[in-house]
Amino acid sequence: MEKDYFEPVIVGFLCRWCAAAAADAAGTSRLHYPPNIRPVRVNCSGFIDPVYILRALLEGADGVFVAGCRPGDCHYVDGNLKARRRIAILKETLKTLGLEDQRVVFEYISTSEGSRYAELVKKFTEKIRGLGPSPLKKKFLTV
Amino acid sequence: MEKVMVSTDILTDEEISRLYQCVSCGKCLVECPVFKATGVTHTLPLPKSRLLRYIVDKSRGKISYFFGPQPIESYRLNQGVPTVYECTLCGACTEQCKFEVKPHTLWYKFRALMNMAGYIPEPLKHVKGGFTETKNPYSLPEDMRSYWVKKEKLIGKASVKRNARVIYFVGCTTAFKRVNRGIAGSMARILNYVGEDWSLLGEKEWCCGAPWLMIGDIERAREHAVHNVEAIEETGAEEVVVTCATCYRAIKQEYEELIDGKLRFKVLHAVELIKRYIDEGKINLAPTDIKLTYHDPCELSRLSGVIDEPRQILRMVSGEYREMEKNKENGFCCGGGGFLQATNNDVRLKVAQIRVNQAVKEGAQYLVSACPSCKMALVDGAKELKSDVKVVDIVELVAQLLGLSSK
Amino acid sequence: MRGALLETGEETRRTINNFLSRLLQEKMVDAILAPIETSTGLVTPGFVTNPEKTHIIDVLAPVIPGVAMATVVSQITHEKPVEKRLGVILKPCDIRALVELVKFQQVNLENIYLIGVDCYGTYPVIKYKEILEKGNLPVENVFEALNKGGETEFRDSCKVCLNPVPIYSDLCIGYIGIEKGKLFIEARTEKGEEFLRKLGFKLLELKERNRAVAEILRERETKREKYFGEAEKELNGMEGINSFFEDCIACHNCMEVCPICFCKECFFDSDRYSYVNQNYLEWNPLEGTVPMLQAKVQFHVGRAVHMASSCVHCGLCEQACPQDIALYKLFGLIARNIQRIFNYTPGRSVEEKPPVQEFKEEELKEFIG
Predict the structure, then answer these.
(1) Which domains does chain A have, with CATH numbers?
(2) Predicted complex ipTM
């Protein structure tokens, strides 16, 4: 089936204090997970303007994986709580417009959870593989 | 934060009330040629209008009522320089406006306001000195104004007389620019051909002053207007003929206000005069089968209403006349206006390319216009596109068909 | 609500303007910021300080002339509060926008008195001009529609508006649910009551007004559900959005007139976003620049993500679009859905923080994972 040959492009926004550290831990423990994810390290999940997630989806990403610290653990106190609201607004917007909001996911991952990081990325990549290429990334030239 | 007091005295009460009649309906945005060329939103008409309203509110309007006249943040004025000056002053915005704002007339005053506050593009700052000294916007030596007479082999046949019925006001872009010399030569030959009693002004001719209005210096424009009117009246001329659309509109529509008096002569564009000679039987044009199309110079057609005469002439010249899709009052600018060539030539070239392509789409061999600024811009645009459309002025075409060219 | 009942006869506008003159004469306010009639018959926000000059005010003009009164107030009080007392005439959506802007520190309400006006609906500016050109008074058309319950050519956002009567103001000039030939000036706050008492008015309750308003809301709620239901179907997926934005020329006028978009430099115009580049604008020598669909989706959907949580449903975005795209369908729909998640109504209260300004420890579990 065509879907077996589809390699999804996943963009990952990982907060450097928790999620990126977990990704590093997964690496040093030689844990295997799909290489489809392109990680982008940000200082805090609260730094991410949801428009960049939208931009990623429109420019070729099939899925966007956002990960931040658990509530209460944020290095900047409440950045992850703000991120939760912003991503909720983004997902609701995508859902309203029928643009497959399941392609955006927000997870809490703490520093020590290397294997959980690998597990979540694997699950998400398979989910996106099942959904197929993102409908947003077709380039329509309107004249 | 750096702030600057800005005077808005240059705006009359009528202009201010027109400014506030704007309802942001957005219709002016659709036809702006600079927006079509660049996609940049801050040079659109509505950002200009909003910035001007903000300046007026702070200096003498709503905000000043509560806090006294307030200074404007200089970062807004710096951003305002491309907003105001990257514009060809083509008037397409005014054509679309249903609320009688007449925006492009406000942009002239906006340039005057910015100039007085000292915020104009760098290239225009450099133009000012030479322009003042040499009386032409190209800062070329004054005696070069008549150089075209020699190059067109018209010595003795295009001269300066003490008295004449008709003055041919050549205009700087025709006189000083090599690509346009043929227009002046052709006009001179046509006037001789019909036996008109005409004269040049020679070195008494100064720039019509419109470029000063485009920079925003109304006083300098006034000096030029006063001087030119005096020079013309000294000859006792009844009529002044011009080959440039900008000179036409400036003398016909701006001079009386600038000199605060009445003009004692009529102003004609070459197409109006040539049409009259045809009607009087002094010129007969045999039809050809050249595929040609006409570019309406904004200052002649949309802003002055001279739309039919050039078409009547061209329909006589060729059975293969076709209109571009944007024509007459809805003509698309060539990019050559508003002193844009100095401020940002890249934008001018983009606008010109769009216009040349509109001619190419109609299968035109000749792209005819009636203004030297348009001719220059369209020639430059055709060069960028590597198109072999021939750009020619209507005066040159008529002279050529009468067998009067210098070659 | 208590208020004063005024006899107007045929002279509604003059009665209101006389009332405003008295506010100035009795020195209860120093200036009134209101829609002023222009020479073309439309209105523009301006202010009057002379009680003899109030005849130029047209409070009931059913049109919003491109700039929301809330934006004007924010331009005046953005840096510092006014020291003179200012009475501002506002439609209900204007008041909501004003309250939101207060919460974003764009407006300072010190020394400002809000005089709300009932609004059964407004016409698009072009339609308003047409009515004037036919020789009719647009406000008469509104009264007729109100009395006969007729369908009119109001803007879409007005036809489904659930807020014909202001919910936050000191005074309210009311005509909905009031018998013909009369006007009801409601006092909504203590300050408002003080004004009316000082001017010597007797205050009374009018229950039939509440009933009339409730009737309108009932009718409109059904219309609103239907409107957004259709919008949802139309805006489903990239195909629907593609055809929706086909005519968009990326002029950004919708963003400029939106009262909630108060950023001095829009994110989408700034260097951080680099929107005007080869990816998003095709340079086609035949047509000039052609905005690509991605660019349009980014701008509109991105702008919605930024501001829809505080959208006051004024519909100015749709009015400002030169290509006649029904933008309120998109922004109203997204705004309604986002505001539902947080159970937030913009402009309802100055104390209630907008969704983007706060967060709870435990919430939105359905959006995680």
Answers:
(1) 2-137 (3.40.50)
(2) 0.93
Summarize pLDDT for C194-244 with one digit per residue, the tens: 889 988 898 888 888 888 899 999 999 999 999 999 999 999 988 899 899
Please check whether residue B375 is in contact with residue B179, taking contact to mean a CB–CB distance below 8 angstroms. Answer: yes
Q: Are residues B105 and B139 in the same domain?
A: no
Percent of chain B scored above 70 by pLDDT? 100
Q: How far apart are CA B220 and CA C85, in angstroms?
A: 45
Under an 8 A CB cutoff, do C294 and A97 touch? no
Q: Which residues does C204 contact at the CB level (< 8 Å), separation at least 6?
A: C2, C3, C4, C5
Instruction: Please report which helix (H) or strand (E) contains residue C284, including its range.
Output: strand C281-284
Rounded to the nearest angstrom, the minimum Cα separation between C337 and chain A is 7
Q: Which residues in chain C are contacts of B20 at CB distance < 8 A?
A: 38, 44, 46
Whole-prediction pTM value? 0.94
CA distance C242 to C236: 10
End-to-end CA distance of chain C: 48
Nearest to A142 by CA among B352, C289, C235: C289
Residue B334's φ and ψ, nearest 5 degrees, are: -80, -15
B302 and B383 in a single domain? The answer is yes
The whole-angstrom distance between C153's CA and the closest CA on chain A is 27
Three-class SS state of C308: helix
Q: Quick one: B36 and B79 in the same domain?
A: yes
- Chain A residues close to C359, C-beta within 8 Å: 78, 81-82, 84-85
Same domain, B102 and B143: no
Confidence of residue B234 (pLDDT cuts 50, 70, 90): very high
Which among C86, C125, C276 has the least Cβ separation from residue B25?
C125
